[in-house]
Amino acid sequence: MRPMFDPVSYAPAYLRVSEAIRTRILGRELREGQVLPTETELARQFEVNRSTVREALRKLESAGLLGRRRGGKRLIVTRPTREAVGGGLSQALTLHRARVVDVWEALQAVQPGIASAAALRRSPAALAKLSACANRFAARSGEREATVTDVADFFDALAEAGANPVFHLLNEPLLRLLKPSLAVIIDRVPQARVRIGAAQVAILAAVKARDAKRAAEWMTRHVRDFRRGYEVAGIDLATEVGEPPAVTSAIS
Amino acid sequence: MRPMFDPVSYAPAYLRVSEAIRTRILGRELREGQVLPTETELARQFEVNRSTVREALRKLESAGLLGRRRGGKRLIVTRPTREAVGGGLSQALTLHRARVVDVWEALQAVQPGIASAAALRRSPAALAKLSACANRFAARSGEREATVTDVADFFDALAEAGANPVFHLLNEPLLRLLKPSLAVIIDRVPQARVRIGAAQVAILAAVKARDAKRAAEWMTRHVRDFRRGYEVAGIDLATEVGEPPAVTSAIS
DNA sequence: CAATATCATATTGTCCGACAATCGGACAGG
DNA sequence: CCTGTCCGATTGTCGGACAATATGATATTG
Predict the structure, then answer these.
(1) B58-95 as b/e: b if 16+ CB within 10 A
(2) Which of A198, B1, B7, B110 has its CA 20 to 30 A from that of A105?
(3) Is A24 in CB contact (< 8 Å) with chain B?
């Protein structure tokens, strides 16, 4: 039978406090960079104990809505960094048992769109950055990890060039999850570097020429190449992605 | 000049504790559904105060890694729900000043891929669910909000049919951000319902026939239609998306 | 015996007060 | 201008306390 009443809702104080602050931030009443009142002051205003305020603050901190300047003591209003968002998302994807092939499929869907957005809207500055990424990759030899980073940077610069925050944010977790398997490809597929380099050059040229269609086409090929790379490298596509443990930020 | 030293790192105890627990969860040592030790016990094990443990727990709670059964007292290990992840992401996108057109562009890139994944891999059950969504939409009249939900449900069911957790997770925030503007379209564009309904039928047929190409094509048209809808409805594409304030979960 | 009411205990949510570490800024001296 | 010194403000952490209630065991009843 359909329940006659909804369950009565109750939220502990630390939640109400964090929601109150969150609402202010989302509503732009608290603007980015602004320093939050001190914990004692917040406790006074909300009429709760400082411990309660602190629990609320930890939630917002973890959501990336609050942060602090390096070495700073006071909390300031921030917007979630791409890294933070990407970390959360890739964490979630890991727990949802996403597989290498799932990530690849998503890349296949998203990247061509990103490439054409970049071609349409790239600024000279963004183009320069993209170009720098491609050059850095081309000049690299050996150094597996750095090479992987170069590839990711290229994708990232491309997303940035598209001037679409949605693309830029969605891209981050995908790249993060791509990296480990990409490292294996770089290691085991001799021609990988050459093919990636060629694709980057072609995409760069298309973006430079503001040719969205060609940028998307090359990107499609580029991503398809990764799949080929998985096969040649002998990576099981059904491998679950998982960030290497202890990659997170806290240090002793 | 390049700094000679890296900044010395220090992490407060509540962070170290939360990272320790997070690592255990990510490493599957703590499995989903498992109840966490009590706060007192954790405090004993980590050799910190209970207040400190609680701050750590709030962080993990906020990340969606811990939760509790409805009305429950003890914390249990959970994986971030799609809603939680989507909420965080759309919050971030709001603060990054994503515009309607940005979300639309992302949909345009992602949805065709989702549609073809669905066509390739849909199970009979998923197909039935998708079909039910389409029917519900078709039967709906008036009720703007419910109609919008129907549309989102269709997209969601499609993503689910694709059996790709990446798509499914990425889809949620996009839909969430789409909704407000979609509501306006439904309100102001008379032919919107008919066109959406027709697209759903066509996509459904393609998915049923396992015709990935056709599913993607229809989806492309479908999404393009939304853009047309924005124009007809007079929605400024540069409007920033923003969730309606106070939509969050906490109640007095 | 199954279902239910009763009760004791464990656990969480919240408060209070305290203190060390350190950040931020003022201030003085070279 | 850079450096060293001081002080107050603020955070991180602790210990203890208590009310409310979820949990699990036990007694009661049909």
Answers:
(1) bbbbbbbbbbeeeeeeebebbbbebebbbbbbbbbbbb
(2) A198
(3) no
Query: Domain check: are A63 and A98 in the same one?
Result: no
Contacts of A100 in chain B (CB under 8 A): none
Asked if A58 and B59 touch (Cβ cutoff 8 Å), the reply is: yes
The answer to whether position B246 is within a domain reads no
Q: Which two tokens stand for residue A165?
A: 């925050």
Kindly state whether B117 is in contact with chain A, defined as any CB-CB distance less than 8 angstroms.
yes
Contacts B166 to A, Cβ<8 Å: 93, 98, 102-103, 105-106, 174
**Please, what's the largest Cα pairwise distance for chain A?**
68
Q: Verify that A69 and A92 share a domain, yes or no.
A: no
A64 and A98 part of one domain: no
Domain shared by B171 and B115, yes or no? yes
Closest residue (Cα, C1') to C23: A73
| Residue B68 domain boundaries | 13-77
Q: How many domains does chain A have?
A: 2
pLDDT in tens, B90-147: 999 999 999 999 999 999 999 999 999 999 999 999 999 999 999 999 998 888 899 9
Same domain, A171 and A120: yes
CA–CA dist B143, B148 (Å, integer):
9
